[in-house]
Write a structure and sequence with these properties.
Layout: E1 2-4, H1 6-19, E2 25-32, E3 38-46, H2 62-72, E4 78-87, H3 95-99, E5 107-114, E6 117-126, E7 133-136, E8 138-140
Parallel strand pairs: 1-3, 1-8, 4-5
Antiparallel strand pairs: 2-3, 2-4, 5-6, 6-7
Length: 141
């Protein structure tokens, strides 16, 4: 089970709406294990630095990732995943998402929008063999 505070979902929602019709993206900090419970405690927005196709592609700025890694070093929190939006598409991972899934221990939180309004939010993890995603239960508290 993935647990996230409503205020953090609100932060991601605002980022997705502000970026529409492009994809937004960022990192998730927290603790736990995808084989058990994960608690998301932090959202770190990033500029979408994808070189092309930001309407249906995302790339987190490497500087944002390294800065967050340094900030979390020595504490209980760690980078546990990332989020991105799917403008005018479902909150299910795309074929491109699957192709870009290099870290099987990271959570994928996807927020769907239709006409700029959020319609769904889902959490996923990549299968061990990196051939597909599995949806993970998400609890907003």
């Amino acid at each position: 089970m993935i647990k996230i505070a409503a205020r953090l979902i609100d932060q991601i929602t605002r980022a997705a709406q502000d970026a529409y019709p492009n994809e937004c993206c960022g990192l998730l900090g927290g603790h736990g294990d995808l084989d058990g419970d994960v608690i998301i405690t932090r959202v770190q927005p990033s500029k979408n630095v994808a070189q092309e196709g930001i309407r249906d592609r995302f790339e987190v700025d490497p500087k944002v990732r390294f800065d967050l890694m340094r900030k979390l070093e020595g504490g209980q929190e760690r980078i546990i995943g990332h989020y991105h939006s799917h403008p005018d598409h479902s909150a299910m991972p795309s074929q491109h998402d699957l192709k870009m899934a290099f870290e099987p221990d990271l959570l994928w939180l996807i927020i769907a929008l239709e006409d700029g309004r959020v319609t769904d939010t889902r959490a996923h993890r990549i299968d061990v063999d990196a051939s597909t995603f599995q949806e993970v239960p998400l609890s907003v508290e």
